[in-house]
Amino acid sequence: xxxxxxxxxxxxxRVVAGTITTEGxxxxxxxxxxxxxxxxxxxxxxxxxWDFPALFEDMKAGLRKAAQMGLKVAGIAVxxxxxxxxxxxxxxNLVGNPVCxxxxxxxxxxxxxxxxxxxxxxYAVNGTQVMEINTLFQLLSMKxxxxxxxxxxxxxxxxxxxxxxxxxxxxxxxxTIASTSEMLNATTRTWDWPLIDRIGLPRHLFCxxxxxxTVRGQLRAxxxxxxxxxxxxxxxxGSHDTASAVAAVPAKADECPVAFISSGTWSLLGVELDxxxxxxxxxxxQFTNEGGIGGKITFLQNITGLWFLQRLxxxxxxxxxxxxxxxxxxxxxxxxxxxVIPVDAPEFQNxxxxxxxxxxxxxxxxxxxxxxxxxxxxxxxxxxxxxxxxATQALNAMLPEPIKKxxxxxxxxxxxxxxxxxxxxxxxxxxxxxxxxxxxGNILTQALAKGEVADIHEMRSIAIV
Length: 465
Description:
By secondary structure, this protein is α/β, with parallel strands linked by helices. The protein folds into 2 domains: 2-242 and 437-464, ATPase, nucleotide binding domain (Nucleotidyltransferase, domain 5), CATH 3.30.420.40; 250-435, ATPase, nucleotide binding domain (Nucleotidyltransferase, domain 5, 2-Layer Sandwich). The protein contains 18 helices and 21 strands. The chain has helices spanning 52-68, 109-114, 119-126, 135-144, 148-152, 159-168, 175-178, 193-198, 221-227, 241-247, 280-284, 307-318, 325-334, 354-364, 373-396, 416-426, 437-449, 456-461; strands at residues 2-8, 12-23, 26-38, 41-44, 47-50, 73-79, 85-88, 155-158, 173-174, 184-185, 190-191, 209-210, 214-218, 233-236, 259-263, 266-273, 288-291, 297-304, 406-409, 430-432, 463-464. It has a 7-stranded mixed β-sheet, sandwiched between helices. Strand 19, helix 16 and strand 20 (430-432) form a beta-alpha-beta unit. The longest helix is centred in the last third of the chain and has 24 residues, at 373-396. It is globular and about 65 Å long. The two termini are 16 Å apart.
């Protein structure tokens, strides 16, 4: 059986095919890229949107390619970034393009919410790291603006749920993506209805929750015919990309807890646990309890990641001085600047110029100012490593014993300089890879739903070819 993982990132999307074979008594996963396409944020009027109709059409193009390749597809699953959502009306129509989490509409919403909500009590239920991009604050901003979309909306669907809805016609919400909203009870793993009622949102917006490893529905007849795939099952996986990535951490059975950094635009640093940690200590350390595969909790901290370097590279390209990663990282390796900046400071969230933001901060704080591109790159990477060390120290204080090994997965695991700086900062072994962790976790969770693998432990034992 072949499974199609549809993996949407902040800059691109792709359709990846995966098939499990058994050779010499050992299961192996074979993967191939079927289709890749661009994803971009679009500023229109006062807001920044995702171009959902274009992304849906690009996804269907990937499904058509899979059929033309003759793949016998047994399952399809979608994963995306967290927190963002779309609204549909009672006739199943999209009310408007989903707004991007980097939009400015949520500024000040967290302070407004906590002016009449106790932070400790709130965290004891939701266990979510407070970030103004969270779904809770996006919805509060819409209520405060008296958005007419909320008046006509029948269902709220998180981004992967929205794709799945228009593939199947079934409106449901996958557990791991719901856990990014700050509106889920972390213990019961159901909607926090008292919170939803208190902020004045209608209950009908919130769909039934389905767990990873279950079938969400089948391709609609029209899409089955259009793509040539037939009535294939659409499967719930860790539709928050972090959950799928963590499911692919190649941890040994004796690694408990499994510790990871899912490294990309964001760095998600944490451990896999059986139950949430909802203490005041966890809240103050800014850790979040998100859903995982196999009934697990991914207890982690959201850290701004290679967003810095992505922005710098884009700025240099716009200036006509495009850089290649390998030579740039080699130059950064030789750079001697020791400056460290706080990577999660507000001025670095979405500045007009990342170069100017970094240099301006250093000047104001009387730090050595990075002059060259290599200096800027070195400052970013060693600042990320320092933040990882700080987060790990806080994490260890909440665990029975400190973590002994760290897995770096995702695209950022290819950054050897960052990996080395991280290992130096943490003082424990760091293992890099797999790069394609999200697609791997997506595919193997589909195989779990179909009975080809037994559990998360077998998923992690499967060799990647």
